[in-house]
Amino acid sequence: MDQDNDLIDRYAAGDREAFNALVQKHQKPLYALVYRMVSNHEDAADLLQKTFVKAFTGLSGFERRSSFKTWLYQIAINLAKNTYRDRAKVQYVSLDDVVLRKDPRTLDVLIRKEHHNLLLEAVGSLPEKQRMTLTLRVQNGLKFEEIANIMQCSLGTAKANYHHAVQKMKILLKEKENRP
Length: 180
Fold this sequence. Notes:
Blueprint: H1 2-12, H2 16-38, H3 41-58, H4 68-86, H5 104-124, H6 128-139, H7 144-151, H8 155-178
Helix pairs in contact: 1-2, 2-3, 2-4, 2-6, 3-4, 4-7, 5-8, 6-8, 7-8
């Protein structure tokens, strides 16, 4: 993360391109994280922009007690939490309302989409800390130490949140697959 600190120092010294380099470095993984949290491209793009604006305006207050990446992820997660709480309920279209074409691949696509929706619904029903931990671990491949820093909790808590999330996902998915 020394590269991030070097870029921050260059930006503080007046090099405006240094912040652009930080954005270029972190925007794709950050977008992926935010998208997985809100499941909507427009919302994810808005949150990504808000995250970098907040980072840009707050960079002078960044104390470097954690890595820039951790600080940036904390900003993004907090903004996504607010969006997630404010979002209206997701509307699902009943398969009975869908007209199938005679192309057999259409049914495969619908089945895959239904499985994807079941997974999203199950993840969405997890408690917030478990959902965040699961997303950071599975979707972003972060280590538990990084997750603990981002979520500002102990390593044991991060591991416990992940374990409980996995256990609840197993139960939720089994229940959802068995529903009529």
